[in-house]
Write a structure and sequence with these properties.
Strand content: 5-15%
Helix content: 40-55%
Strand order of the largest sheet: 1-2
Radius of gyration: 24 Å
Number of strands: 6
CATH topology of the largest domain: Rhomboid-like fold
Shape: elongated
Structural class: mainly alpha
């Protein structure tokens, strides 16, 4: 044990060492990656603003007759101009709606389910692919889902709102890139667990069935469009993966979890074979930096810092080659 691992050193360098965790202030967004955190805050803020301004005519959902009496509910003018409303989107070239509709929600349960899904799945995907690629995947997935919904509901008289299409893209990408991860959810208050890839396929089949049946006022085609975009990304179809991650990325798509890929690239940790881990029989003693040659190239620090800030997919071919040479002790 080195001096840096001893309690008295930790106590001297860390004023919080040994202190009660209840002494610290509550930080609800602590540990959430930045893009997911900002998406949560923006969506919740937009919902609260439209809720509190509901009595203003532009935000009101109340339908009145010519005498001024309330006769029901209607989309607000805010929904018609910032939701995805076909007459305005096509007739008035309101193309901004492909972005803005993703941040508007029609009710408490609507935003609750979407934000819960974003929090539970999105934070893992952002840490896996990096913040910038995650934001691209989210927004482009929502745009693709919106276009599919427009094309399949050309004469709809209601605006489409919600982040469901974008979140479906995130869920599909997570399930296909991490097929053996376990996802749990409730069905009639009974917990169900299944592999992430199986969940994506089951959800896609269910969505197709609901879309063909035309049941309810849910934009099932937007959900299906999001799932398709997540599939295009995960398997890099039509270059969607390279578009989002950057053409310099050399990491394979839909080939296992982020940590498995990272360990494989760095030559560390157990290998995976048919879903079971086993230790590599060939090993040798290495120094603290993992390089048997005993040398340390300062460029490695820059590469690792870049990987930490922007995700593993941000590394170029030259940077992966540098890491590979360091692993093999050729630097």
């Amino acid at each position: 044990m080195s001096i840096y691992d001893r309690d008295y050193y930790k106590q001297q360098t860390n004023p919080d060492w040994g202190q009660s965790p209840y002494r610290k202030s509550f930080q609800p967004f602590q540990g959430i990656p930045p893009v997911v955190k900002w998406l949560l805050m923006i969506n919740i803020a937009v919902y609260l603003i439209t809720l509190f301004l509901g009595n203003i005519p532009f935000f009101s959902h109340v339908a009145r007759n010519s005498m001024g009496y309330i006769i029901g509910q209607k989309p607000s003018d805010f929904d018609l101009w910032f939701g995805l409303y076909n007459p305005n989107f096509i007739g008035h070239f309101a193309f901004w709606q492909l972005i803005t509709y993703q941040f508007i929600h029609g009710g408490f349960l609507h935003i609750l389910f979407n934000m819960f899904s974003l929090y539970m799945i999105g934070r893992f995907v952002e840490k896996q692919i990096g913040s910038v690629p995650f934001l691209k995947l989210y927004l482009l997935g929502g745009i693709f889902a919106g276009m599919i919904n427009v094309l399949t509901n050309m004469f709809s008289g209601l605006p489409t709102v919600g982040a469901s299409g974008a979140i479906c893209a995130i869920v599909a990408a997570f399930g296909l890139m991490n097929p053996n991860a376990r996802i749990g959810f409730l069905v009639l208050f009974f917990p169900i667990f299944m592999k992430a890839k199986t969940f994506v396929y089951v959800f896609a089949i269910f969505t197709i069935f609901m879309a063909l049946g035309g049941r309810g006022n849910i934009a099932h085609m937007a959900h299906l469009g999001g799932l398709v975009f997540g599939w295009l990304y995960a398997y890099n179809k039509f270059g969607i993966g390279n578009l989002i991650n950057g053409s310099g990325s050399t990491v394979s798509f839909a080939s296992g979890s982020f940590f498995s890929n990272l360990k494989y690239k760095m030559g560390a940790g157990p290998k995976v074979y048919k879903g079971e881990e086993f230790e590599d029989a060939n090993f040798k003693e290495v120094n603290s930096h993992g390089n048997s040659s005993g040398k340390w190239d300062s460029r490695i620090d820059d590469v690792l810092d870049k990987m930490s800030r922007h995700g593993i997919h941000s590394l170029t071919d030259e940077e992966w080659e540098l890491l590979d040479k360091h692993k093999k002790g050729k630097l």
